[in-house]
Write a structure and sequence with these properties.
- With 372 residues, the protein is of the alpha/beta class.
- The chain folds into 2 domains: 124 residues, Aspartate Aminotransferase, domain 1; 227 residues, Type I PLP-dependent aspartate aminotransferase-like (Major domain) (Aspartate Aminotransferase, domain 2, 3-Layer(aba) Sandwich), CATH 3.40.640.
- 41% of the residues lie in helices and 16% in strands.
- It has 14 helices and 13 strands.
- The protein has a 7-stranded mixed beta sheet with strand order 2-8-7-6-5-3-4, with helices on both faces. It has a 4-stranded antiparallel beta sheet with strand order 9-10-13-12.
- Strand 5, helix 8 and strand 6 form a beta-alpha-beta unit.
- The chain is globular.
- The structure holds pyridoxal-5'-phosphate (PLP).
- The site of pyridoxal-5'-phosphate (PLP) has 13 residues, from helix 5.
């Protein structure tokens, strides 16, 4: 079946291995198992617990321990509202595979992770892209969205907090979006892979699954818990939707790795320690980013309020693809061009990693940009 190229992944495949300064990463610095144990105060006595595990398929839809831990990330979700997947990428894919038929109308709020429009398009759905705008602080204009969603819209795809902009939809606005969906009886798939990394107030904003009967939340260990290598994610929704999804899931997952399930449970049970670490890192990186943006006349930036990425506007007349490929060739700095996210004139910068490199790379980038 035809599917468009995944532009962000292609960019990574082409440029990541030669990057001297990697400002494209969206994870907060990943943890080793030793670092995880140190952070949560466990000794390597726990090794026996791991080495004694029989490497069978484990619990098919995820262990009770893991589902119990995930339920603590939501306000009203039980075991039968949760299924475990191969990362958030597997979660989003399974949701679409289970719910979208050829000819269905899909509204995808962009910029977003490309899965949210390219997969439904490849299934033969009619995908309409609703573009977020910088002038609205990258938040949806509710009146416009209301007109955009039609009676027969089957599903609205959102990403909150948003990659790349770092915008977080305020709770009241999310409720307005639910009302729009409810009128059309549409599902909302909300990719909540950065939920837990709000910079101000409660680090977890409201989940779509907790406020809408047809709301589907996807999440994972990659960003909030710095454990992308576990390749573990989840879907949370009402039990009928989960049943439907599990029917598809039997054909493509069986179960996730038993060790991935174990470490994910341990990490989520210690969520406060990991999230504190990550929010501190984000605070440091964000300060470097904002100081840089304020001091460079070529750069405009709506400060991110969640997640690990910012979407930067540059005031130079050159396409973002050409800019980023020239930049990397001449300086070794890897930044993601907005064109890979359907919005030229912008650049995505990840700021949750390696702060010395971040500061140095941004200063080199500013000097380099002045030559245009
Ligand atoms: C918005 C969004 N959704 C999903 C994913 C995939 O996450 P995972 O690594 O958990 O599969 C990413 C990864 O960058 C992402 O940014």
């Amino acid at each position: 079946m035809y599917i468009d190229k995944f532009k962000v992944e292609e960019w990574f495949n082409k440029y990541e291995k030669d990057a001297v300064y990697d400002l494209a990463d969206t994870c907060v610095e990943s943890l080793s198992i030793n670092e995880l144990y140190e952070l949560i105060g466990k000794s390597n006595l726990y090794c026996d617990e791991i080495f004694d595990k029989k490497l069978n398929y484990g619990a098919i839809h995820g262990s009770e321990r893991l589902k119990q831990a995930i339920s603590t990330l939501y306000s009203s979700q039980k075991m039968n509202n949760i299924t475990i997947t191969h990362g958030a990428i597997g979660a989003n894919h399974l949701v679409m595979l289970s719910l979208i038929e050829p000819g269905d109308k899909v509204v995808s709020v962009v910029p977003t992770y490309q899965q949210h429009y390219s997969i439904p398009k490849s299934f033969g759905a009619n995908v309409e892209m609703f573009f977020l705008e910088e002038k609205n602080n990258w938040l949806p204009d509710i009146d416009k969205l209301e007109k955009f969603v039609k009676n027969d819209t089957k599903i609205i795809c959102l990403n909150n907090p948003n990659n790349p902009t770092g915008a977080v939809i305020p709770d009241n606005m999310l409720k307005d979006i639910v009302e729009i969906a409810r009128k059309s009886n549409a599902y909302i798939l909300c990719d909540e892979v950065y939920r837990g990394l709000n910079h101000n107030g409660n680090s977890f904003s409201v989940s779509i699954a907790d406020i809408y009967e047809k709301g589907i939340s996807t999440g994972s260990m990659s960003k909030v818990f710095s454990l992308a290598g576990l390749r573990l994610g989840w879907i949370v929704a009402n039990s009928e939707i989960i049943e439907k999804i599990n029917q598809q899931r039997e054909y493509n997952t069986i179960s996730v790795g038993i060790l991935d399930d174990y470490f994910a449970s341990l990490a989520i049970e210690n969520k406060d320690l990991i999230i504190n670490r990550n929010l501190n890192k984000i605070k440091t990186g964000k300060k470097i980013l904002l100081d840089w943006a304020n001091s460079d006349a070529n750069i405009d930036l709506i400060p991110p309020s969640g997640g690990t990425t910012a979407f930067v506007k540059y005031n130079v007349d050159i396409s973002s693809t050409i800019l980023c490929s020239k930049l990397q060739k001449e300086t070794g700095i890897m930044i993601l061009p907005g064109e890979t996210l359907e919005l030229d004139g912008y650049l995505r910068i990840g700021y949750g990693n390696n702060f010395e490199q971040l500061e140095k790379a941004l200063s080199i980038f500013s000097k380099w940009l002045r030559k245009f």
